[in-house]
Amino acid sequence: MIIVFKKGASQKEVNNLIKKINSLGLKAMISKGIERTIVGVIGPEDVVRLQPLEVFPGVERVMTVLKPYKLASREFKNEDSIVKIRKGVEIGGKKVGVIAGPCSIESRKQLRMVAEKVKKAGAIILRGGAFKPRTSPYTFQGLGEEGLKILKDVSQEFDIPTATEVMDTRDVGLTAKYADILQVGARNMQNFNLLKEVGQIKKPVILKRGLNATIKELLMSAEYILSEGNFNVILCERGIRTFEDFTRNTLDLSAICAVKVLSHLPIIVDPSHACGKWGMVAPLSKAAVAAGADGLLIEVHPNPQEALSDGPQQLLPENFAFLMKELKKIAQVVGKNM
Ligand code: PEP
Ligand code: MN
Fold first, then answer.
1. Are 184 and 239 in a shared domain?
2. Cβ < 6 A, ligand 1 pocket
């Protein structure tokens, strides 16, 4: 249920209603828009429905959101959300934000080389995996905490915020200590305990779409994070499984447009995991920006032939720099900048 306050309703009126909601054992989620405040009431639907909340002072109307995702919906928040990473770095709004870096953090030397080059090319966030979810248990599994330490050091050295995947509820605190953004991988999109755990921290979360997940399921997973109080969620389309096997996955560009209609959350695109081939990363990146993506997540490696994971899809730093120049032009055409 969503409570829409009148334009000019006082903070006291809002607080008064929140107190009532909490006293009923329900959760109140507040969205302060430019014009008015909206409060989402979360809890067992029968309890929520029985409350005559429209009679409270300051309330304009009470709406039932029929969609299963409430806080993630446009009904709850009409304006696009902008996720702030740190001062001057954000995802959403008029800027296309590019996150770049290697699939896995392999060494300090490797990450330093990539960080310097992607930052120079215009990336605003450095990525790198320390816990590597691999299809085979016999392949490289990542450097773990050692990798996170390298990530933090390199982040400070080059003054660039970072994103890294967390796979296990037990590692959320540890990962949040080292990285600015926590990524929930495609294979964990419906790991509800992990979603609840990242919902309880205040750091931004990149939530990747599962290989076989619908857009509705992606938004339901986002709802798990939002309902714990963390509104800093960035959705990520990274390709879905189809009958096509020339590419690693099939990039669903329409997901960008669908999410823009259904939700206020920003959505970025990962063309690297979507296609699995470095030669297709540039055209798919351009298509994603043209379709309205709020950002991109691109794998870059100084020597892809020697990469310990995902070699075939990682861009050389010089190819990434060239792509960034081209993307600026596309961004301009769709009324954005980089
Ligand atoms: C990644 O970004 O490192 C990754 C493993 O991607 P995905 O979860 O989309 O497969
Ligand atoms: Mn990868």
1. yes
2. 103, 129, 133, 165, 185-187, 208, 238, 270, 273
Residue 236 CA: which ligand 1 atom is closest? 9
Share of the chain above pLDDT 90, in %: 86
User: How many angstroms separate the CA atoms of 102 and 316, rounded?
Assistant: 10
- Ligand 2 centre and the CA of 204: distance in Å? 20
Together in a domain, 87 and 59 = no
CATH code, domain carrying 127: 3.20.20.70
Residues 232 and 119 in one domain: yes
Reported as a single tens digit per residue, the pLDDT across 169-191 is 999 999 999 999 999 999 999 99
Ligand with the closest atom to the CA of 132: 1
- What is the residue range of 38's domain? 2-63
CATH number at residue 14: 3.30.70.1140
> What are the tens digits of pLDDT across the range 319-335?
999 999 999 999 999 99
Does one domain contain both 101 and 50? no
Task: Please state, in angstroms and rounded to a whole number, the distance separating the CA atoms of residues 76 and 70.
Answer: 7
Report which bound ligand comes closest to the CA of 128.
1
Could you tell me the distance, in angstroms and rounded to a whole number, from the CA of residue 185 to the centre of ligand 1? 5
Residue 68 maps to a domain: no
Q: Determine the atom of ligand 1 nearest the C-alpha atom of 165.
A: 3
How many domains would you assign to the chain? 2
Q: Residue 190 falls within a domain, yes or no?
A: yes
- pTM of the predicted model as reported, rounded to 2 decimal places: 0.94
Distant-in-sequence, close-in-space partners of 12: CB < 8 Å, separation ≥ 6: none
Residue 32 has pLDDT above 90, yes or no: no
Residue 72 forms part of a structural domain: no
Query: Who's near 128: CB < 8 A, 6+ residues apart?
Result: 101, 102, 103, 104, 105, 111, 114, 147, 150, 151, 162, 164
Return all residues near 150 (Cβ < 8 A) that are at least 6 apart. Answer: 105, 107, 108, 111, 128, 143
